[in-house]
Structure formats: C-alpha cells, structure tokens
TrEMBL record:
GO biological process terms held by the UniProt record: lysine biosynthetic process via aminoadipic acid
Catalysed reaction, written as an equation: (2R,3S)-homoisocitrate = cis-homoaconitate + H2O
Main location: mitochondrion
Native organism: Wickerhamiella sorbophila
KW Cell cycle (keyword) present: no
Role played: Catalyzes the reversible hydration of cis-homoaconitate to (2R,3S)-homoisocitrate, a step in the alpha-aminoadipate pathway for lysine biosynthesis.
Name of the protein described by the UniProt record: Homoaconitase, mitochondrial
Gene3D superfamilies hit by this protein: Aconitase, domain 3, Aconitase, domain 4
Catalytic activity, EC: 4.2.1.36
Gene Ontology MF terms in the entry: 4 iron, 4 sulfur cluster binding; homoaconitate hydratase activity; metal ion binding
Length: 676
C-alpha cells in the first residue's frame, strides 16, 4: 500500500487561506449559517450559528425531550427539522424501556415530528433512505456516527443532547467550523478489497491524530469507483479516525443512485423527488484555490484486506498477517450502521452459501433497516445466511453498542463488521474484538478463525507486506499561539483553579472507558453511582486513586468515541474540576462546554509527565500541583516543594464561554435566554 501526505502542519487560519475562496465544507456551512453580517463569508475557525436542515435523535430522544422541557420550551420550533428513531436498545422488552419508547412516540405525536419505531431500522440508515440526509445539506444528529451522511454528499456532524434540545427549542445551535483535510483517492480497489478496508487502513496508518477534529473532503478519480454503500461505510468510520465529518463528492454515481431511489419511494416525496434529484446535476464544488489544512493521498489499487484490533480501531494489520496466526473466534457480527446494508448482506451470503458456521462460533446478523432486510429476503441473501447457522437480530444497533443478545464474554474473541472495537464496548472488557469487512467476518465464522473468504473455497490467499512500511508521516500538527492580552473574568467565575495532577497515561481514552455503555441508556442513574463508575472501563482502580478537587491529565484524543454526555457529567460527579490532555475528541469537548466541565489542551504537560512517570500504572497520583490563572491564560505546574517545573500559555477562555460555565452549562444558559 502506498500512502503519502502533502502539506505540513495546521496553520493559523487567517494568515494562510485565500480571501473569498471556500472549500466544499465551508460552502455548505455558508448555506446554513444564520445571523451573518451582509457579505460575510465563513471559513475554518469561525464560530457560527447554524440552522441545520434536520436533527435526528434516537433512544436518547426522551432525555433530549426532558432537557427541552427543562429549558422552559413547550413547542418544537420547526417540527419538519426534527426526526426521532428508535434503534439502540430495541431488544430490551422490559417495561421500563418500553415506557421510555412510548414516551418518545407520544412526544413526537404531540409535536408533529417524524417518528420511526423500533424495528424500522438504525437512525442513520433511515436518514439516508428517507432523504433527510441529502446532498449539500447540513444535517446533525445526537449520535457520533452522523458523519455517515457524508457518503451521500451531505455534511453530517454530531451534536450532543443539550445541543439537540437547543435545536428543538430554537432551530439553531453553535458550531466552530473545523480545519478541513482533503483526502485524494486514486486508482481502483483490487478484487476482494472493500470500502471497509479503505477506512480500516486509514484509521490504522494515520493513527497519530492527523485528522483529529477535522472535516474531511474525499476527492479524486478513485471516488467514482466506490459504490454509495462503500462511501457510507467510509464516511461512517471517519468518526473513529477522529474526524468531525467525512464528505464525498456528488457525482454521476450518486445521482444514479438517487434516480433509482425515485423508483422505490412513494411520489411525491417531500425530500427525494424529481425536482431535488435534478438539482444535483448543478454541482456545488470547492473553489480552485480553496485552503485545506491537510492533504493526504491514498492509492486504492495498493490496498489489501485489512483488520483492526484487537480492541483498538487505531491498530490495523493486513488480513494475511492475522490469517497466519490462527486466531480462533467465538463470535462474529454482521450488524450496525457501518456494514449492514444490502450489498454487505449479499457479500456475506456469497461467502456462507451452502456452508455451515464452525462449531463453537456464534454468528449474529441484523439488517441496517427493515427495508434492507426485506430486499435481502427477496434476493435470497438473508435465507442463505440463516441456513448457514446465523442468528438473526432485529434491525438496530444491538451488540455494536453492547446491548441485547450475543455480547462477548470474558476470554472470548469476536470479529465484527461494526465501527468500534473498544475494550468493553461489545461485552466483557476481558474479551478481544476485531473489525473487518462483511466478507472477512463471514469467512471467519465459517473457518472458526480469522481468515480469508478464499480459504472457505480452498483457494490460495494473497500475501501482503505490513502497512507501516509504506507510510510517509509528517510531524504532529501544531496549533496557533495564544495571545498575550489579559482575559476579563466574569463575576462568579474563578480567577484561578488549582489541584493535584492525576496522570491517566493513555491516548485515545474513549467515552466507553470513561462511562460504561451499559449505563448510557439508564436515565435515572444517581450522581453517586455515576461518580463510582467513572473511568472504570479504563481502570477499575480509578475510584480508589482519585478524590474531589483533583485534575486529570491524559494523552491525546481524550474522550474519543460516542456522543454520551455522561462522559463529562460522571467526571463532574466525581468532583474533578478540570481535565488537561494533549488533545480532546471534539464531541467530548462539546459535552464539556455544555455541561460546565473545564478542559485545557497542554501537549507539553503530558509529554513531561510521561518522561517522569514510567511505572506503567494506568492511574498515577503525581504529587504535582497545577494552577490555571484564567486572567493571564497561563498554567503553572509545581512540585510539592513549590518548585516550578512547567509554565505554559493556554488558550483564552472568553466571556461567552465563562458565561455558560457560570450559568451551570448550556441548558441553563439557553433557558435563561428564552426567559429573556
């Protein structure tokens, strides 16, 4: 495989971008930005108010509704903007869960919003099938895999529950336009290589935050060789790559796909109709001199089947390497919003048809939607998979989010066509989880070990070299320097914050590690319990080693993963006043602001602590103390003798952000604004 990167580090936005030139991301945001001064063009780095085309929520719709009501709002500002789907915990038939589902459905009826019941499908798939996510739209969802919409040329990005409630109440939310990375795809995938292999490879080889918190635009002649299903898979997992969006071009392949959709959807359709499809023939594209913070190039023709893991999306290896290791599997999964569309089910069916699942292996299959399952049944693919011994599940998230039947037990190995294999996400934290394409998952279920589809037929398998040998890496990007001006501190906001540093020495600590998924959809977890389980999937000893008033220091991309706001609120429940990291996942940062948890990015501090503390323990009390002087925007670190060992300039916390923190978070701030 040959991958290279063109261009250097992130630069100061205002000093490098050509005036009046916009990339495609900026042009779409321009369409949906509100309250701009006449003639104002938006660019990366700008904070803007946006009125998204649509806002989707799923099982978290009821918590969003409670927030909405807590704001003092009674009526959704635009009921055509809001979409509610039930997809995460659809196997749960307990009265408590069914009551929540009834509450959501009744609320949707009261507000006149579009609603899709449990069993209809995964929300992201519905958003695409029903045209809510449509080319050149800006559509958001209170779920981290909203990036999926980029597969159909829609700028999709996640928001958190508080943002969703704000959109319901006002039709608007805030967004900082991220730096934009251009990923050029060249050539064509070899036979047996899929869109899943593309994104698994990208996550594995560019695994040092190269696109963290970037918007991605996929360009190049290679894109035209990717099906829409493959584009949706790649866009979906740009989330795992660390990006905020993953936008594919609107080209002849996509227009043809929508032409076919016209024949399947009842007409006239409010979103996918002759007029909207014809409008795609007048393309919107980036200006020729548009600025991109990064440029990467991937030659599709050099790829081979790849597998990520175990227990990390950031580690990928050629399938040929793992196939030689005789890694036995206990469970295989063809589920989720990533790879459960019709082409994925067809690919798996072609592997298992006429075969039987290996003894000791359980193979679970769930379609992305009821429409997909209906099509798969009509084509015979579904029955081929069931005949091989697979266990069907209802259309929904299920084991991908660690809910329902078939979760991994301690000591087991699973291989999945889902998007995440975080430790503990799909079951026991003492299990091993790998990610692969539907073909490889199906083959592994038949073989009883990780292997090639060719092996199922007794054919020879290709040999490939390790991906790492073909990478050209540039230095880690650096941010803009902080200003020297004094910061005004609002009444009620502390002028300084001080505490002992507790080192959590790992990169990519995800939201499942911070707040276990099994509690995510329990809406009545008391604060004391949230404090108790805080970080338990990262380190079961965390609770014994920390106390109120501590400052957590961690590595890069802290808070990556799902959109659960409890990842921030459980830290607050623990009494932690400040989290410092090399960098943060954007969704976690957004949740932190919205819930009044303070965060700072100080890469130099984590590097310093890593050089001094090498015990290998996941949680270490350092005996060092940090003081953040808000007015001077500096952080000083001293040892227990008062000796200064580090002094760093940090970003300024402006009055608008201080106001949100003083109010106790965005929810209370919006409520007060509505009263005014």
């Amino acid at each position: 495989m040959q991958i290279s990167r063109v261009g250097g580090s992130v630069r100061h936005f205002s000093s490098v971008r050509p005036l009046f030139a916009q990339n495609l991301t900026e042009k779409i945001v321009q369409k949906y930005a509100v309250g701009l001064a006449d003639g104002k063009e938006v660019h990366s780095g700008d904070y803007v108010s946006i009125r998204p085309s649509h806002c989707m929520s799923h099982d978290n719709s009821w918590p969003v509704a409670l927030k909405f009501k807590g704001l003092g709002a009674a009526k959704v500002a635009d009921n055509r903007q809001v979409v509610m789907t039930l997809d995460h915990d659809v196997q749960n038939k307990s009265e408590k869960n069914l009551e929540k589902y009834r509450n959501i459905e009744n609320f949707a009826k009261e507000q006149g919003t579009d609603f899709y019941p449990a069993g209809r499908g995964i929300g992201h798939q519905i958003m695409v099938e029903e045209g809510y996510a449509f080319p050149y739209n800006l559509t958001v969802a209170s779920d981290s895999h909203s990036n999926t919409y980029g597969g159909v040329g829609c700028l999709g990005t996640p928001v958190v529950r508080t943002d969703a409630a704000s959109i319901w109440a006002t039709g608007k939310t805030w967004w900082q336009i991220p730096p934009v990375a251009k990923v050029e795809l060249r050539g064509e995938l070899p036979a047996g290589v899929t869109g899943k292999d593309v994104i698994v490879a990208l996550c594995g080889v560019f695994n040092n935050d190269e696109v963290l918190n970037h918007a991605i635009e996929f360009v190049g002649d290679g894109a035209k060789h990717l099906s829409v299903d493959e584009r949706l898979t790649i866009a979906n997992m740009t989330t795992e790559w660390g990006a905020l969006t993953g936008l594919f071009p609107v080209d002849d392949v996509l227009v043809k796909w929508y032409e076919e959709r016209l024949t399947r959807l009842p007409q006239p359709h409010p979103r996918v109709n002759r007029e909207t499809v014809d409008s795609l023939k007048t393309p919107l594209s980036a200006d020729g001199d548009a600025y991109y913070a990064k440029e990467l190039v991937l030659d599709l023709s050099t790829l081979s089947p790849c597998v990520s893991g175990p227990n990390s999306v950031k580690v990928s290896k050629p399938l040929s390497v793992l196939a030689e290791q005789d890694i036995k599997v206990n469970k295989a999964y063809l589920v989720s919003c990533t790879n459960s569309r019709l082409s994925d089910i067809e690919a798996a069916a072609n592997v298992v048809k006429g075969k039987k699942i290996a003894d000791g292996v359980e193979f679970y299959v769930a379609a992305a939607s009821s429409e997909v399952q209906k099509d798969a049944e009509a084509a015979g693919y579904w029955q081929d998979i069931i005949n091989a011994g697979a266990k069907p599940l209802p259309a929904g998230c299920g084991p991908c989010i660690g809910l329902g039947t078939g979760l991994l037990e301690a000591g087991e190995v699973g291989i999945s066509a889902t998007n995440r294999n975080f430790k503990g996400r799909m079951g026991s934290r003492d299990a091993l989880a790998y990610l692969a394409s539907p073909e490889v998952v199906a083959a592994s279920a038949i073989l009883g070990r990780i292997g090639f589809p060719e092996e199922v037929e007794g054919k020879a398998v290709p040999k490939t070299q390790d991906l790492v040998k073909n990478i050209k890496a540039n230095p880690k990007p650096t941010g803009a320097s902080a200003t020297e001006a004094a910061v005004s501190v609002l009444p009620g906001f502390p002028e300084s914050i001080e505490g002992e540093l507790v080192l959590c020495d790992a990169d990519n600590i995800n939201t499942d590690a911070i707040y276990p998924g099994k509690y995510t959809y329990q809406d009545d977890v008391p604060k004391e319990k949230m404090a108790e389980v805080c970080m338990e999937n990262y380190d079961p000893e965390f609770g014994k080693k920390t106390k109120a008033g501590d400052i957590i220091v961690s590595g890069f991309n802290f808070g990556t993963g799902s959109s659960r706001e409890q990842a921030a609120t459980c830290i607050l429940a623990r009494g932690i006043q400040l989290v410092i990291a090399g960098s943060f996942g954007n969704i976690f940062s957004r949740n932190s602001i919205n819930n009044a948890l303070l965060t700072l990015e100080i890469p130099a501090l984590i590097e310093l602590l890593r050089s001094q503390y090498t015990s290998g323990e996941p949680t270490i009390r350092t005996g060092l103390f940090a003081r953040w002087d808000v007015k001077s925007a500096t952080v000083t670190v001293r040892d227990n003798n008062g000796q200064e060992i580090l002094k760093e300039k940090v970003g300024e916390l402006g009055e608008s952000m201080q106001e949100i923190i003083v109010e106790g978070g965005l929810e209370k701030w919006v409520s007060n604004q509505l009263k005014k």
